Amino acid sequence: MTSKMTSTVTSRVASATSQAQSQPCDPMMSVKGLSWHLDDSTILNKISFSLKKGEMLGVIGPNGAGKSSLLRCLYRYIQPSAGEVLLQGRPLQEYGSREFAREVAVVLQDTPPHFAMTTGQLVAMGLTPHKGLLDFANKADIHRVNEAIAKVGLTHKANSLYDKLSGGEKQRALIARAIVQSPKLLILDEPTNHLDVRYQIQTLELVRSLGISVICSIHDLNLASALCDSLLMLNNGECVAYGSADKVLTQERISSVFGVCSQITPHPQHGRPLISYFYGYQDAEDSLHNSEGHNSESETGASEKDASEGGVSEVSHVS
How many angstroms separate the most distant Cα atoms in the chain? Predict the structure, then answer.
């Protein structure tokens, strides 16, 4: 490499570093000691993490770990019992409803019914936070809606009734609505639940490509590993690990939290953890039950023998 080329590269690196340092470093969202209690039960206990602007955080954990409850606290569906949640440095409660809707979009795993509404009309609802009460959609708005529909591969369903779509198509339509909403933070609760493998990958890649901050609960650990910048692992309402995929996804932790044996190797394409699971849990459980039943029968037979010989007075009294 010539000295001129070296100088040019060095100059570009220095310029990029300077720009990065000049950009605000406040996180998009900061969560400190968040807890939520329902009656006498602790659902979430002292959860803390932060999300940088433009990054994607995957929330993982077994069923009942508290993933959906955490997200509900973040998009203000439920009020935490304790802790602090800051959005761009401001407490969530300081945001008015319309302002919050301009900053945060939410896609839930349970698609709500929208009777007699076409896919295009549903997606256009994303314009609502940006429009006044009597404002009508203009050409730019219509283009924005059509572009979002195309991004999720539903152009051919734009005039179809939303309620006639498949589960996966409904989920993609809701993501298109969120795209039209133009938020700075997108929160998704199991967005790949009803999708086949291709659309699972494509949907999360699309979400990443939006260039906004994302918090997403995901069941598939390999998807989370491949596409999230950082992971938050929950179990029994507590954070058991938080950080990059290679730090969070260890064989020991997966065994402890999910109760499965696995082997982790670098993915051949992106190098992040690739989890291979071992099988045979049902056979092992059946063997355990059979063993317990055999032991129980043996103990019962021994007790009856002892009782007949006068060895165990309690058994003879019961009869």
Answer: 101
CA distance 21 to 202: 32
Question: Quick one: which of 161, 126, 152 has its CA closest to 141?
Answer: 126
pLDDT per residue over 164-192, tens digit each? 998 888 888 999 999 999 999 999 999 88
Tokens 């995957």 -> residue: 58
Whether 235 and 65 have beta carbons less than 8 Å apart is answered as yes
DSSP string, 234-285: EETTEEEEEE-HHHH--HHHHHHHH---EEEEE-TTT-SEEEEE---HHHHH
Convert the pLDDT of each residue in 223-257 to its tens digit. Answer: 999 999 999 999 999 999 999 999 999 999 999 99
pTM above 0.90, yes or no: no
Say if residues 188 and 216 touch (Cβ distance below 8 Å): yes
